[in-house]
């Protein structure tokens, strides 16, 4: 398992992550990319715990996703199954488990201030923290030709991963109002949503 982890994690995170996996007796499955999620945790019918993490993530995002999912297991074990999946108990657990990793030996120095800010109140998905998501993306091995919603001019049409087309509208607080071309329904998009430009 340690050799496998070494392919996906920053070098100095391998050993502590291995100990966490061993200590929680969780079964880690590294899977092909899923567009809608980086990882997930579930308790199987036999009572065992399973975490899946996308193999395509860069090592910093992989580390954050792995600890995010382990935090679900630890929080459920400590506080009971009735807690909210991303409630205060999970946030406290995630902060506690992640803290030893937020240091320059593991993360690049330019990510540290963004991580420190993010972990003051971690969100259900690091993708909703646009600044952090954009900073993490620069470490992806394969740079995609897609662009972010915030980079598009207002009024242009773009396509998302499932093929649906949208027209970009105005920014509302943090997210952008975008109208689905086929239905006329309005949706809110995170600034760092990756899309394909159709026409400006």
Task: Characterize this entry briefly.
One of its GO terms (biological process) is response to stress. The chain is an alpha+beta fold and 200 residues long. Helix content is 32%, strand content 23%.
3D structure, described in words:
The chain is an alpha+beta fold. The chain folds into 2 domains: 2-137, Zincin-like (2-Layer Sandwich); 147-199, SH3 type barrels (Roll). Helix content is 32%, strand content 23%. It has 6 helices and 9 strands; from the N terminus they run H-H-E-E-E-H-H-H-H-E-E-E-E-E-E. It has helices at 2-8, 14-24, 59-79, 88-98, 112-118, 130-137; strands spanning 26-31, 39-43, 49-54, 147-148, 157-159, 165-172, 175-180, 186-189, 194-199. The protein has a 6-stranded antiparallel beta sheet with strand order 4-9-5-6-7-8, with no helix packed on it. Strands 1-3-2 form a 3-stranded mixed beta sheet. A hairpin with a 5-residue loop joins strand 5 (157-159) and strand 6 (165-172). Helix 2 packs parallel to helix 3 and helix 3 (59-79) crosses helix 4 (88-98). The N and C termini lie far apart (48 Å). The mean pLDDT is 90.
């Amino acid at each position: 398992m340690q050799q496998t982890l070494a392919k996906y994690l920053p070098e100095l995170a391998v050993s502590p992550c291995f100990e966490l996996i061993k200590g929680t007796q969780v079964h880690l499955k590294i899977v092909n990319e899923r567009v809608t999620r980086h990882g997930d945790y579930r308790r199987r019918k036999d009572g065992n715990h399973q975490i899946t993490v996308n193999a395509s993530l860069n090592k910093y995002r992989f580390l954050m996703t792995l600890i995010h999912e382990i935090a679900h297991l630890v929080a459920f074990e400590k506080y009971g199954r009735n807690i909210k999946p991303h409630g205060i108990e999970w946030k406290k657990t995630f902060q506690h488990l992640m803290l030893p990793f937020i240091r320059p030996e593991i993360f690049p120095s330019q990510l540290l201030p963004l991580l420190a800010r993010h972990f003051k109140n971690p969100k259900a998905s690091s993708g909703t923290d646009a600044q952090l998501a954009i900073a993490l993306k620069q470490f992806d091995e394969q740079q995609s030709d897609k662009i972010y919603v915030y980079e598009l001019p207002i009024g242009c049409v773009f396509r998302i991963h499932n093929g649906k087309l949208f027209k970009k509208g105005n920014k509302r607080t943090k997210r952008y109002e975008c109208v689905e071309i086929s239905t006329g329904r309005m949706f809110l998009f995170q600034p760092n949503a990756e899309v394909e430009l159709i026409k400006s």
